[in-house]
Each structure stands twice: as C-alpha cells, then as structure tokens.
C-alpha cells in the first residue's frame, strides 16, 4: 500500500517541520488505538498517519518522496529497494516524545528501556488472553504438606499449522491460518505440573502466570487460576493454621489424670491430662498444627477436646463404689 503523506496529514508541500509535527500530533491523538479501542477504522487511519509522519519527519525520506513521487518512492526509492513503512511493534520508533504527548505523558514511559514501549503504544489487535479458572480438589493432608500436582488442561501453544505466524501460504499469496484463525496459537490438551505450596487453604486461589488462554497478535497469555477445594479429613478439622480434634477419654483417666495419646499430622503425641479433667475441656499442643511454610511463619497448634466416656453397665459392686465416690467427691 502506498499513500500520499501530504494528503494523509492534510498539510501543504511547503509545510514546515513544526507544522507537520503539529498536524500529526492532532490527528494521531484523534485516531490513537488506545483512545478508540476496537475501532478498526481508527486503527488503520492511525497506521496511515504514522507512516505519513515517518516519511515527512525524516528529511532524507521527505526529499526522496518529493523528488520521486508516490509510486516511484514506494517501488524504487532508497536505491531500488523501495520505501518500507516502520514496523510498529519492534525496533526503534523515532517519535517517543510525541507519543508521550499524545498519550498524556509519563504513564507509559517507565515500562521499557528507553522509556517507551512500542508494543504498548501500537497495540493494534494485541490482546492479552483471558484468565481461566480450574477447580483443584486437594486432599486435606496434601493441602497442608504441599505437592506437585499433575493437571490435564487445555493450554495455549504455538499453532502447528502456521508455526505461530497466523498466516499460511495459499495460491502464491498468504491467507489467514484456518487452524488458529490467525491467532498464531492454539489450545492443546497438555499435562501440566503445578507446584502447590505447603499450607494452602480451602477457597484459596493459586495463580499460574501465562497458563490461561492464549493472547492475540502477540499479546501475552492469560493466567490459570486454580481454585483450591480441600476435602475434609477423618481426624482433624482445620481453621487457618490450627488443627482441631475430639478424643473420647474414659471417666477414670479424667478423674485421676494421666497421659493421653493423640494423633498428630506426623504421628502421635502424648497429652498430659490433669486430675479432674472436665468433659468438653480443650487442651493445646503447641506447634502440632499446620507446619510453618517458611521460616518467617509460625507453625499452628493442635487443639484436643476431651469427650468423657462412661461405663454403661455397672455391677452391684461398682454401684457401691460409685456411691462411695459420690459422697467423697460430690459434684455441685
Ligand atoms: Zn495457525
């Protein structure tokens, strides 16, 4: 495609550098893709404006255009190779200061080397992929210990048909790739391994960057959001980093006091019950909860609630003893 840069910018052949710049700035602001999201007409208009400005802002190119005219300039300028418009999303673009103007100043300037990101300013059709969600069911203990899990998911990858180009050759020219519809990438069923950190909680989200749906036109992929669902455990319940359990304890151990063996995540621990332990009383085993995931954190605790069990059948002798105990240690 060739164009008349003077017509495109609406300036006279005798226009001064400053007037060309002014005309470009005014029109570029009007048609800038960031200010006209999704508007294809504005997008192509903006490309034309930028191409026109590329020619007229460069004295060597301007001179060549003026002496050759439009057709010659595009076909045989520059020693026969013809004029090539600037590639917007790569390399050095000469008018960084102008874009800072157009886009309202410094907001973009800190993002890339040289203070200007071409990919961002010229984000034609460049779209970040959607995030995708996946429910991750975890076993109670796996959630606590952390693990590597294996997931079968559709993940974006380069299109095998077009090699990620988005176009294929057809009849001496090119056409949009029928496999990926021009996106350059397709979703493939893949087995991915994800690291699940120790101590994840029910309802938590784990973000895997770039594992979501593929972006378009070279835009980055979305993220994969794993929504954690933790299945209950037969022994423990969990709140945050603390674990809870109930243990049946005989009335005699409660009355006399002694050692109670309780299950823990890693095995067993002994809990010392004082004489006179009450039904429903809760004891804490410090540090026996969810282990600390990092050295900055503290391990949780294990809370053991006592449920007193009583003998259900009493002999005459046992009743007699219970009577004597009731008199010796009355309960209010
Ligand atoms: Zn393709």
Keywords:
332 residues; alpha+beta; Helix Hairpins; HSP40/DNAj peptide-binding domain; 3 domains; four-stranded mixed β-sheet; three-stranded mixed β-sheet; rod-shaped; binds zinc ion
Provide structural commentary:
With 332 residues, this protein is of the alpha+beta class. It has helices spanning 5-9, 17-31, 40-56, 59-68, 70-76, 96-102, 118-121, 140-145, 251-256, 316-328; strands at 132-138, 147-158, 167-170, 173-176, 185-196, 205-208, 224-230, 237-239, 242-250, 258-263, 268-273, 282-285, 302-309. It has three domains: 5-121, DnaJ domain (Helix Hairpins, Orthogonal Bundle), CATH 1.10.287; 132-230, HSP40/DNAj peptide-binding domain, CATH 2.60.260.20; 237-328, Sandwich (HSP40/DNAj peptide-binding domain). It is 27% helix and 26% strand. The strands form five sheets. Strands 8-9-13-12 form a four-stranded mixed β-sheet. It is rod-shaped and about 125 Å long. The structure holds zinc ion.
